[in-house]
Design a protein that fits this description.
Layout: H1 5-16, E1 20-22, E2 27-31, E3 34-48, E4 51-64, H2 67-80
Antiparallel strand pairs: 1-2, 2-3, 3-4
Length: about 90
C-alpha cells in the first residue's frame, strides 16, 4: 500500500472507531464475531525522481469469524483505506 502505518491505522479508526485496537503483533479489528489482525511493515519509500511514495506491506490474518462475514468486513476495510488520486 502507499501509506504509512499511522495513515493505515487512522483510516481504520475513522471507519470503525473503537473496534480498532493496537496489539503487540499489529492492529486488530473486531466487528461482531470477526477478528482480523493487520501486521504492518514499512518498506523503503518508492522514489520517482524527487517524489517519494510510502510503501507499506500489510499482512492480513483472520483470527476468528466465518468467511462470508470476514469477506464483507475486508471489503469495508478496502474502501476505508483507499486513497484518492487526481
Amino acid at each position: 500500500m502507499n501509506s504509512s502505518p499511522a495513515e493505515f491505522r487512522r483510516a481504520l479508526v475513522q471507519a470503525f472507531g473503537d473496534a480498532v485496537s493496537e496489539t503487540a503483533d499489529g492492529v486488530l479489528l473486531v466487528v461482531g464475531e470477526v477478528q482480523i489482525l493487520f501486521v504492518l511493515d514499512s518498506l523503503p519509500a518508492r522514489r520517482i525522481g524527487a517524489l517519494q511514495i510510502a510503501d507499506l506491506r500489510v499482512d492480513i490474518s483472520l483470527q476468528s469469524g466465518e468467511s462470508p462475514a470476514a469477506e464483507r468486513l475486508l471489503a469495508q476495510v478496502d474502501r476505508a483505506t483507499l486513497r484518492g488520486g487526481g
